Amino acid sequence: MRALAFALLISAAAGPALAQDLRPSGKLLLTGGVSTVEGSGGGGLSTWATTTGYGEAAGIGANLHATKVELSDFSLTTYGAAVGIFDRVELSYARQYFDTQAAGAALGLGQGFTFGQDVYGVKVVVAGDAIFDQDRWLPQIAVGAQLKKSDQGAIVRAVGAEDDTGVDYYVAATKLLLDRSLLLNGTLRYTEANQFGLLGFGGREGASLQFEGSAAYLLSKRLAVGAEYRTKPDNLAFAGEDAALDIFAAYAVNKHLSVTAAYVDLGDIATFKDQRGLYLSLQAGF
Amino acid sequence: MFIALLIMLAQPPHAVPGEEAVAPYAASNANAGASPVSGRALFQTFGGKAGIDRIVAATVDASVADPRTSDIFKATDLVRLKRTLSEQVCFILAGPCDYTGRDMKTAHRDMGLQTEDLTALIEHLQVAMDIERVPFAAQNKLLAKLAPMKRVIVER
Questions:
Q1: Structural domain of A153
Q2: A132: contact with B, CB 8 A cutoff
Q3: Which residues 97-126 of chain A have a CB within 8 Å of chain B?
Q4: From the list B126, B140, B150, which residue is nearest A181 (CB)?
Q5: Burial bucket for residue A225 (CB in 10 Å: 0-12, 13-18, 19+)
Q6: What sign has the CA pseudo-torsion B29, B33, B35, B36?
Q7: Residue at B18 is within a domain
Q8: CATH code, B86
Q9: pLDDT digits (tens, 9 = 90+) for B146-155
Q10: Shortest Cα distance, chain B CAs vs residue A230, angstroms
């Protein structure tokens, strides 16, 4: 059922895109956002309604990203790739590694035990134009799905998750308030992912509706600063899960390279309190 | 002589020397495609009409030289384009100008413009505004007025 809905969304995405002419679309610096830890275009933690890349090759833009988050007791590393097609469709993939470091031993998993996850994403813009519709309140709206698969099925079930696979569905709305140099995003996500899915899916309850919001102020063509907030489910009995937040600065060296640095607070993770630290992400593309 | 007289008659009263004749149309500020900002401050930030003239000239020259967009301007009267574009920006920034050019839909009809063309122009405009030391936040207030024109300028 989940796989079917995911497949339907992908085919719905391909239809309108293929009907368009093969010509560059063109975008301004940073207007497509950066890469999230889940591979989709957005802020660092929250997915936006914009599509990734600058669409310079026949309307298709693509990028690669690498992100490192060093928390108090854990570290998260993600690599990924995303393709934006005709400003309408985005396909993405991310590979995440959540290293439990010394905490792994304390949790009985072993020093340096690492949870891994694959995230496959599809996003379709359904209405609005975040950049050009400056005379309308209507934001750019996109719907999307992220298929996530943990590679530690036995462990995530042992800690109380229902499943090692899950699909997040979301609706994102992004608006650039250009006369105030401000970009706002709000996303509703229907998810059962524990710690983004790294600790499996479901548990005490099933999927629930969660919120993520971002605000970014554009200081120059190249530099944006902002903050994000993302709520998450709290489904594992053994450890409470908190909302995530960050403050970030994103710098576009040019259309091919951008750097994002952030201070993130992911709250308590797997009984370890106050997981905070630095986030650094590099993104290369066209 | 007669033809020269006809050409002179065909020129709108706002034309400056060097402009080619155009088919008659009714000039109106409504053709500018955007309402002016409130207050005179932004106009001053852009260096008044002289600053706007320099920004527009630099933007047009760079767009003509840009291989992405040079073809678009092959048959364009650049003298008239610079004058009307400068009037338009001056009017939108609440300066003491009237816009005497055509409306946005008519002015861009059958040019086959696409978003990338607009993006290229905006990039040149941003550089020109940087050179005139217009602060980024002020630049965005002008771009916010121009951006919605995409819907009538871009044909597909």
A1: 2-285
A2: yes
A3: none
A4: B140
A5: middle
A6: negative
A7: no
A8: 1.10.490.10
A9: 999 999 998 7
A10: 28
